[in-house]
Amino acid sequence: MNNKIRTDLALEVRESFPEDDVEIKGVILTENYDEENDIRVSTVVIKDERGAKAMQKPIGTYITIEAPEIDKSSENNHKAVTEEIARQLRKLAGDLKGEEVLVVGLGNREVTPDALGPQVVDNLFVTRHLIKEYGTDFKEKHHLGNVSAISPGVMAQTGMETVEIIKGIIKETQPKLVIVIDALAARSIHRVNTTIQLTDTGISPGSGIGNNRKALNEESLGIKVIALGCPTVVDAATIVSDTLTSYMEHSGFDETDIDKFISEVREQQIDNMFVTPKNIDESIKRISDTVSEALNTCFAQAV
Amino acid sequence: MNNKIRTDLALEVRESFPEDDVEIKGVILTENYDEENDIRVSTVVIKDERGAKAMQKPIGTYITIEAPEIDKSSENNHKAVTEEIARQLRKLAGDLKGEEVLVVGLGNREVTPDALGPQVVDNLFVTRHLIKEYGTDFKEKHHLGNVSAISPGVMAQTGMETVEIIKGIIKETQPKLVIVIDALAARSIHRVNTTIQLTDTGISPGSGIGNNRKALNEESLGIKVIALGCPTVVDAATIVSDTLTSYMEHSGFDETDIDKFISEVREQQIDNMFVTPKNIDESIKRISDTVSEALNTCFAQAV
Amino acid sequence: MNNKIRTDLALEVRESFPEDDVEIKGVILTENYDEENDIRVSTVVIKDERGAKAMQKPIGTYITIEAPEIDKSSENNHKAVTEEIARQLRKLAGDLKGEEVLVVGLGNREVTPDALGPQVVDNLFVTRHLIKEYGTDFKEKHHLGNVSAISPGVMAQTGMETVEIIKGIIKETQPKLVIVIDALAARSIHRVNTTIQLTDTGISPGSGIGNNRKALNEESLGIKVIALGCPTVVDAATIVSDTLTSYMEHSGFDETDIDKFISEVREQQIDNMFVTPKNIDESIKRISDTVSEALNTCFAQAV
Amino acid sequence: MNNKIRTDLALEVRESFPEDDVEIKGVILTENYDEENDIRVSTVVIKDERGAKAMQKPIGTYITIEAPEIDKSSENNHKAVTEEIARQLRKLAGDLKGEEVLVVGLGNREVTPDALGPQVVDNLFVTRHLIKEYGTDFKEKHHLGNVSAISPGVMAQTGMETVEIIKGIIKETQPKLVIVIDALAARSIHRVNTTIQLTDTGISPGSGIGNNRKALNEESLGIKVIALGCPTVVDAATIVSDTLTSYMEHSGFDETDIDKFISEVREQQIDNMFVTPKNIDESIKRISDTVSEALNTCFAQAV
Fold first, then answer.
1. Which residue among A75, A88, B121, D187 is buried most deeply as judged by most CB within 10 Å?
2. How far does chain D reach from its first CA to its final CA, in angstroms?
């Protein structure tokens, strides 16, 4: 049944396996819970091809930060979440030593739940041009990271694959690391706007809210790629089939009936629809503030 | 079962009754189909309290223009749709004779599917101030209608009920007619971004995508109120329960089981979620262009 | 020569008088300088009609906060400026005791230097609807002020005078105080984006960047009106005539020649033009963040 | 005196020469006036290095379309202007035969007068991805040009030179022609928002509203580059010095005095300021509509 799951979160794929299958071969899950700030950090490591096949995700590390309050106006744990994101990002990025980083804000700024990437880029402290102009002394005096950034837009706006645009820019500007920011699709509504996923595997086709674009990863771009995403939508077909599956399992239907229903749902018009909360504008604003603050902190300390 | 329906379209409420109940007492349905332009106009008239109770909508006229191509880039029938909207609007508004009209763009401009009202207002040809300054001769020479407009924002942004804001403005500026533009919720996905509803009953609580605000109608505002809306979302709970109900009915479940399931779905977190297409930005842009063009035409001819 | 000045800042009007005329009858100027944070607070009090005539501004108090770093990315004195604005605002507003405040964001959100008001409102913590719904206990428990807000748009967008819109809303919602936020025109370029003016006299016709609208003050609205503004532009005619006047005075021209030149400049097409810095988007973003933070602080403490 | 001029319009440079110097060596000026539609087309051809030095612009063709009504709401000559732009564009571009075109919208979408390029790109009919997916038959059936587009943002937002970004993208996507859309600076206020300049020389450093970026032209990008621009601002220093120069010449000052004054003006703070009309939002909206319509027409006919 796992191949019916539609989620960008490795953690949700892992959860879809039976509870007693705690040790899927080739996949390691570790968890940490900060009770004071209500922040849970789960790390899924896919070690080999066997794990990749089971998880249907590339080999690599997937860190999930769950912080239910991340999109709330209360500022109780805002600082704690920001610092946790920066800490996990440094873990994946290694010591940047002030080397050049290109941040790419994926998504369509005109569609609210897809605007996370562009809004994070809007709030970044971009410095590459300043360092080019004023030199290394200026950089060190002001503790600047070396940051460039772009929000290229989606294929319906540009007519180009994002990977074509980014590959071209990288060849010209020669950064050492790419960080890709994107809105993701979760399977469960309660993960929407409460979760950050970081991974060193980049972005694979069909991620985000379903646009068909080619991978952005170390293989395609030639340098290390870290993807930072937050689920802001659930696929409409997923929400319908999950709700009914849960009901049908509970009511004692057999698997054949359930599969038949699911395939019927999939044939309907909801294939290009997504589900998102009514106050998505406020959530996107708060989460993009938090993520950009985490990035700015991380780069400044990376000098 | 009708009380489980969540739709702003009178036509969908009418359709929810059994097919053989063609003549609900107190409700009259007439239809016209323009085959050349693929435009269907359905008029639901709720004549009396009996009809209002059956339909759970106020007494009045509800005109639905269905034009599947309204949000497409092809311009084939763009002019035909624009003229049809203007024609139906004049039917409801009567002869304006150049009298003052206030257009209100409801909704949140920061949430794409809710931005229809503000975007229509952005494209309106507003003239009231020009007529105040240059006089009646100027107005007649340039064939101007007398138009003012406002996009007040939603309650989460203003802290005020929309009816408080609009009532106050009407008292000061004394228009003869209010036209309220709003994004609606449909029950069926195929009505999203393909349908325009016009009604002389205004907007009732719980309309739009679910914000709890008081009615905007002749009773509350003291002058005639026409509402023009386009469904841009489906309530997430509605899509789940409708899909499953349809499956369960088809599979021979009895009504008690279905009701039990529906109430379970309602209790879940999807209560404040909506479903919308991925390319909602393009649809909203095209529909708001069409509606504002219809309004501008209608006002100019109303001199 | 004073009637040739085009500025919204009382401080600049005061400065336009000869230096030895330190004690204009009816006008009192006091100054305070916080050296550590480089914040200068000047208070101009116009006591009577004689002062009002000399200054060509209504009787009342005008507080100017000069903080050269307010639009810079450095956060050195961000907190100090925010607190100074909140402190001066409380001085003018008196003890709010949790009473209702309506904040009005004037200006056109589509024109960058005029978008200050709307952007401040976008960042406000609006609470009136929450208190209506959850009651006084909720308000006190969460230390909430009672805040409503609106950005009505400019007359070219609405066809209505702002005073008509706000007067109507006030009658319906009955706030105790109105705070109007607006982008202003300064005379000197070095005051642009570095200065905040607070006044208990509201907004007078011809303020802002020159839209002809009627006054928003206690007389027109019936309740106390505080205006908080920041100069973001200089009138183009002012910059030309000031630059030349300065040169001509310096070069020994007599006043007749200068007056003749000024009137020629005024006749040219630059009458509806303004001057603004190239990075105005960044400045507006930072200043609106600072002002909204000051307002949010002030309201929260006003409970 | 020519080196004091600050304008992106070749026509204005040409006009700055004495009237009797009708035949500057190496520069040819031809004019056409369409009286019915009030559209004037002037073509400046810089033939050789001598002309380039005199004009301080690269060798090439500069076509200026002056249409005073282009930013007005009246639609009188809207179609005529659109067709004129398309006609002149085809003259410079040659027969595209359906080959790939990349449109680049320069400028900062957050600063109203600088948002022309991004807004034109927003309205373009982008097709490259459709042709990649559905093939040549689809392209020919629907009479599609092959169009991709990007609005990269300005250096303060990206940290990168625009030329780096575009050069990289071109290497990956291999278009045959680049069309660069940009907001320009004029010398005379009456050219602002009334003029379109097309040139086959691309964009040179210091164009637009003064950002220091490297050239976008055939030499730097390796393929043909057409720049289409519209002046939306006047440099603040230019407006001051031009107004005063005109007055001083008129009043019989000698050139030394004038030069001294100009250099004093240049030293002041107005160096990073621009002048723009108050209703710049409406003008930008109308001009970007017109330009994008001209481009869409041109590409569709280029199949």
1. B121
2. 47
